[in-house]
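Loading example: each entry is read as three labelled lines plus one structure line.
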Amino acid sequence: MDSNKRIRLIVDITKLIITILVSCGLVTLIVLVTSSDPVNAFSSFFLGPFTSVRRIGNIVEAASPLMFTALAVIMIFSAGQFSMISEGAFFIGTLGAMMIATSVPLPAGIHPIVAILVAGAMGAAVALIPAVLKMKWQVSEVVTSLMLNYVVQFFAIYMVSYHFREISSSSLASIEFKDTSILPVIIRGTRIHLGIVLGVILCIITYFLLYRTTFGMKLRTVGNNAKFAHYSGIKVTGIMVISQVIAGALAGMGGGAEILGMYNRFKWTTSPGYGWSGIVVALLARDNPLMVPLAALFMGYLNVGANIMARNSDVSSEVVQIIQGVMILMIAAEALLKKWKQKMIVKAAKSEAGMKGDVIND
Amino acid sequence: MIDYSFIVDFLFMWIRVATPILLASLGAILCEKSGVVNLGLDGIMLISALFGVLGSAYGGNLIWGVIAGVGSALIISGIFAYFHLVLKANAVLCGTAVNTIASGLTVFALQLATGEKGSSSSLKSYTFPTVNIPFIKDIPILGDILSGHNLITYIAFLMVIVIWIFMYKTPLGLRMRAVGENPNAASSVGQNVIKIRFLAILLCGVLVGFGGMYLSMGYLSMFTRDMVAGRGFIALAACAMGQATPVGVLISSMVFAFFDGLSNILQLLQIPSEFVQMLPYVATIFGLTVYSIQKIRLQKKKSKEIQQNVIE
Amino acid sequence: MEAKREVLRMENIVKVYSNGVMANKGINFSINAGEIHALSGENGAGKSTLMKIIFGEEQPTSGDIYINGQKTVITSPQLAIKLGIGMVHQHFMLVSSMTVAENVILGVEPTKGILINMKHAIKQVEEIAEKYNMNINPKMKVEDLTVGQKQKVEILKALFRGAKILILDEPTAVLTPQETTELFEELKRLRDSGYTIIFISHKLNEVKELCNRITIIRHGKSMGVYDVKTVTEQDISNLMVGRDVILNIEKSAPKIGKTTIRVSDLTIIGENGKHCINRLSFSLREGEILGIAGVEGNGQLELVEALTGLRKYNAGSIEICGKEISQCNVKDIRKLAVSHIPEDRMTTGAAPSLSITENMLSDKISSNSFSKHGIINKRAIKQYGIDMVKQYQILCKNPDVSIDSLSGGNIQKAVLARELSNNPKIIIADQPTRGVDVGATEFIHKRLINMRDNKKSVLLISSDLNEVLGLSDSIIVMHEGRIAAYFPDAAKITELQLGGYMLGIEKQSEEEIKEVRHGQ
């Protein structure tokens, strides 16, 4: 019955194409309805990102944080959990990196490494909370992680404004990072920084972790059927907790890499929402870490396009969020194309049943 | 130190801030009881908060506001329901999608309407009227606390009874409970599980929509960006803690609203505002955890008692 | 003889499920008004699928249905009910927290204004119950009812909706003998008042007692319709399984060794306060297959869960290879070389979207042969997958496809491969051949005997009497959490003898049962 696998692949790819087409169609529709100069808006959105090296660089820069949060989401979803903590873990990571970058004097090579590790540790610590609450008392990790995201956001802003604030600045901003902590730019003429390399490496490591280690196999077993995992002698709750801690660390490191690569001060007043975009990227990548860079680039492209469009026309960049939501819906829709898939499977089954008396089971 | 008027003010505000949470968690009851986890409450509130304002501003009266607010809540709920029920998308992902769409769409539409991304202050929108209850308003203290609230507030508290009657005394309520507890049983007697859940999600959308409109057309008199601020999630927690019964939900909503109100009061004090703003969310995590611990303890105790009885 | 009027006819019904399984391969089926018509076939023959199609729960891939001569497409249970078809499911379709009356009126509620008229509803339910002599209180909550009463509620539900054709899916599987007698009385009364009943069962004595005609299904195909009076039970069973039902499994005399599992005074109390296991004692020894027979739900499941670490027990002790296991988790017990073939392979025995190989490795991925320092050895794993698929004759294109693309029998072989390739000392096989085709069944039986011949201990739990009798060296019969009988030599007893003990009609003396402890 290998035909089933082939059919699944065909359906998956078709669905992805439909999702992207629908998203593009949606942009077109919104622009046509709302813009007074739709041609300009279109070209800004779809072609704008490719008009200069700097803008192409922007795509890569925008993709960078999304890789980290997407990996976090993949770790969590693969274990069958629904913690939304990647948003909060990312943000607490930016705080952790900021604290090290501003206040701990370290030599140049080591400074960002320490900062990012601290960021990861803080992300892991935050992610641990909903995981442990679920493990010990079956508190829904969905709600607690959502609540925790708010708590983290306020806590980070409190820290910045009460302990690391640049007094001379009128808007909220932290004191400047020490030069030794900044992640170097790796491609001239852009702001593409070393963080993206870290992101790609982590994609490979996460893939390795999920598909080449015993832990990864156990994790996927737990995510696929926790009851079966328990029966097999796997410590189910332990795996669930560890997966969320790793996810928190990944997202936290993402926060660290982002702030040290793109900024020299902490300036956010609300959480930037990379955790949510990470869900879209994870879904686009079909939960495969090796596909994450590609999916993140696509998402980065949409973000950059929307920003350029917002600058050059009367269509605001929030259009991207609408598209992201629609993408989540489309990819999550299990039953989309199901009838078509069913037809193909029936066809295959009939031709096979003709050849041998197949086994029956109801 | 704390004087009488302070307490009255606080109690008055407690009821005010409880309104949106109560409405949303009553809506959540319908979903929960019929077996749907509606994580999109937050987004639905946000959308109806904006479209209520836009409807009333462009329609020129409150009615248009209600039509636009409820209508938009129904549409987004319908999208959630269609993808979750018909296309079998995971409920958590659907809810997340709705929330993502909502936070983008509201800012997008706001900018389109006003040219701004922050608030709708430049629009002349309408609010729901406040109501002074005859007799009660003249009672000292009690009158100051219970009278003079927004119309939606009274509707919200009335809804506790309405939802109770609906869930336990009407055919549709019976069917919803059946579909939620044992969908196979319901479908085996010809009940269309998807249809009933769809209906539950839509009705929930109406209640939640009013909760959203209350925020922008009662609590405040304009829409501001991301003004729902997780109240939908808090409502979901309140629904779980209230075991999805109207009275239980009323109590747990009041508990969470207490911290929301408290944070309003504490803003006047010398505590960093971020900590104050955190309070409702911390309280929700804490409340949900305490509730879960209690629940497990009770279960353990119960099963222990049963086993003890058997052994003796 | 009165003229028989055909109320339902199904022609050439084919059903292919979305996982590619072909459950019905062109079945013809027809019933007449006022008869009790038996539908029999082995587990997985396609009976349930056929009934789901009649009741509108599944759509046939092709084929026609005629009701009272009219070609009809039954698109939903709702339509089926409208057409006068009622279904009593094997697993009751009741809402536990609601009352009997609420369950009965669900979907057809009498109303007063917009509210439910509960008084009227209760009266109506009482009236119907009385008419067919079913003693039941409509105000009781369903969760407080006995199994037999719940079944009555199910029948009431169908009658309340005006059903003329009643489908009962293995209704007696969960009933006590008294309840069964009661049910048969009710069914006969219903038939005599003009109802048509489809009685799904593979209990041939019941079919003989109750039914007028019988349709036999095998491997998704109809094997013909017979008048119950003119066929013998032997004929029916031959048609059902296509060979002599008595399993002729060749096996040598057992070479019994040391005790491997010793259960003493084991007591398990369920969540509802019922004794699932009540002071149960027995021993399992090397080189024997000890069969546990019994009607399902008499404590077998709980016993298996306790033995494998999936459930804690309240009193007594279990020793496996001399070690008391009350503090052990699943992993510890697996380390004692205990293998477990679970009752439900899809919910407990497999991770559906993982590959066949991954499913066969879930318990041993951390062992040195498949990984070092937490990193898996891809080549060894691949080789293992290929070897196992060959050794256990798992039909698949390659071992990397997801396991849910396989048929039930092949999934079960993969489960067997996982559990038997660990070189276990003890194998706990819970319904090892349920829903599995004949070929796979034979294969599994041979493997289990092979294990026993290699001085392993096998505990076989099965509700299939043929299997228990054919495979076991000695047999325990469980009834209501206790041992009702122990037979040291399985060859010396018959199905009929076992049946008496299983249904609690007979019970051995304490002395006879004590034998099972082998003097310990």
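The first helix of chain A runs from residue 2 to 34.
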